[in-house]
Write a structure and sequence with these properties.
With about 475 residues, the chain is of the alpha/beta class. It folds into five domains: about 120 residues, Cobalt-precorrin-4 Transmethylase, domain 1 (3-Layer(aba) Sandwich), CATH 3.40.1010.10; about 100 residues, Methyltransferase, Cobalt-precorrin-4 Transmethylase, Domain 2 (2-Layer Sandwich); about 90 residues, Orthogonal Bundle (Helix Hairpins); about 80 residues, MazG-like (Helix Hairpins), CATH 1.10.287.1080; about 45 residues. The chain is built from 18 helices and ten strands. The strands form two sheets. A five-stranded parallel β-sheet has the order 3-2-4-1-5, with helices on both faces. Strand 8 and strand 9 form a beta hairpin. It starts with a strand and ends with a helix.
Length: about 475
């Protein structure tokens, strides 16, 4: 009859095959295997017609579509009058992403599904490593993991990664893991767990996929990175600080009382970025993140929203506003991307029943003036309100300089200076320079050079005000040379 049987072959030792699985194998005339490289296969009745997906799993660059191809084929075979039996190492629903997807699609299409359990590969691995002492043990399919850019699990928990069936997959898994874990992080490569050929090798993460024996029964044990390395740990600490037995200062904070701290941390982060000091940048990112988590915790306590709502909202927004990345829509350059962005935002506002707003209405009034001017110009340019060439920008600057010179009173001068600054911001935009950062850099250099003049005056045991302008200029040039 039509339908799918997902059958677990156990971890490897034929003696660990369940009686239910063996009974099913004895009455099967045809069997589809994830891999023939499993010790139980040699014990199967010779009259069974055996097919496998080994060729898919050794196709190098095409291996990224292994699970998709397996799922599609098994669903297709399951619709036949005789159905299909798909046998995999271990337990079908433990660590095998393809089987999980087959089960989901079978349910969607009302295709009959039967699962014949097998002893999971986890059993011999947990026994070998004593992993019962580690809470939160997680596992992941390497074929799915290699498609990611960052690991989809917390670095504070141990992880078992299955289906590391080739050197190529091992190298691609290493690349993903190294986005979070250091290259010298110790890991264990496990081959043929639960069989007489079981082999466990401790290596550094950077060595994965180099010279180790790897086959279709290979998995990787990834020890925790260490306490305090996950986003969840930061949330827990902040929640504890706000708890009844927490910190008196943290407990009394509100969205409004933290406003100044958020602004301060944002500016300190900008200072760190301008300094180029990676240690300072890392520290200030942490301080800025703390402010976000604090606000999220306060909102959760007040029943407004939770951190999960924040994360889900921004994830959905990023995917929705990047159809050229996630939906395969063709775009011609950055300009078209920005046009689409504005069109998508407009559609979002309409869907939410919001009043029609101007293209500049969403820009915060609290932004620094230079940043605000740059954002106004960026948005106007997205809809074509821009000079066709940079020559027009330069001519506008020259025009504004003349008007500054010709101003006849204070109010007129203030207006013309504003126009000149606005034109200079436009020039910076054309040159892809952040005017706010540029001015901050100039301010920093001015402070450093002027401090140098002050130090020279102290070394000469003179008051700063007694230095002539020529002397100050000499020290100023010394400071520039020292830079």
């Amino acid at each position: 009859m039509p339908g799918i049987i997902l059958l677990g072959l156990g971890p490897g030792d034929p003696n660990l095959l369940t009686r239910q699985a063996w009974a099913q194998l004895l009455i099967s005339s045809e069997l589809w295997l994830r891999t023939r490289e499993h010790p139980v296969v040699a014990e199967l009745p010779p009259e069974i017609k055996i097919n496998s997906f080994d060729d898919l799993q050794t196709q190098g660059e095409n291996a990224g579509r292994v699970n998709d191809s397996i799922v599609a084929k098994i669903i297709e075979l399951g619709k036949r009058p005789v159905g299909v039996t798909f046998a995999v190492p271990g337990h079908p629903l433990v660590g095998d992403a393809a089987c999980l997807e087959i089960a989901r699609k079978a349910h969607e299409t009302r295709l009959e599904l039967r699962v014949i359990a097998g002893i999971s590969f986890l059993t011999p691995i947990v026994t070998a490593f004593g992993l019962g002492q580690y809470p939160g043990l997680s596992f992941c399919d390497a074929i799915e993991l290699r498609k990611a850019h960052v690991p989809p699990f917390s670095p504070e928990v141990p992880v078992l990664i299955t289906q590391i069936s080739s050197q190529l997959i091992a190298k691609e898994v290493k690349k993903v893991l190294c986005s979070v874990y250091p290259e010298h992080h110790k890991v264990n490569l496990i081959n043929a767990a639960g069989t007489t050929d079981e082999l466990v090798e401790e290596i550094c993460l950077c060595e994965l996929g180099q010279r180790q024996p790897i086959g279709l029964l290979t998995c990787l044990y990834l020890p925790p990175l260490g306490e305090g390395t996950s986003f969840e740990k930061l949330q827990e600490i902040v929640a504890h600080l706000r708890a009844p037995d927490g910190c008196p200062w943290d407990k009394k904070q509100t969205h409004r009382s933290l406003r100044a701290h958020l602004i301060e941390e944002a500016y300190e982060t900008l200072d760190a970025l301008d300094s180029g000091d990676s240690g300072k940048i890392r520290e200030e990112f942490g301080d800025l993140m703390l402010q976000i988590v604090l606000h999220a915790q306060i909102a959760s306590e007040e029943g407004e929203f939770r951190m999960a709502d924040i994360l889900q909202g921004i994830c959905e927004k990023l995917v929705r506003r990047h159809p050229h990345v996630f939906e395969g829509i063709e775009v011609d350059g950055v300009g078209k991307v920005l046009e689409n962005w504005e069109a998508i935002k407009k559609a979002e506002r309409q869907a939410n029943g919001e009043e029609e707003k101007g293209i500049l209405d969403g820009i915060p009034l609290a932004l620094p003036a230079l940043s605000q001017a740059q954002e106004y110009q960026n948005r106007a340019a997205r809809v074509g309100f821009d000079w066709p060439k940079i020559d027009g920008v330069l001519e506008k600057i020259e025009e504004e300089i003349r008007e500054v010179r010709d101003a006849t009173n204070r109010d007129e001068l203030a207006a013309e200076l504003g126009d000149l600054l606005f034109a200079l911001v436009n020039f910076a935009r054309w040159k892809d320079i952040d005017p706010e950062a540029a001015l901050r850099g100039t301010n920093t250099r001015f402070k450093q050079r002027f401090s140098f003049i002050e130090r020279r005056a102290r070394q000469q045991k003179r008051e700063l005000s007694t230095l002539s302008l020529d002397e100050m200029e000499t020290h100023w040039q010394e400071a520039k040379t020292a830079e």
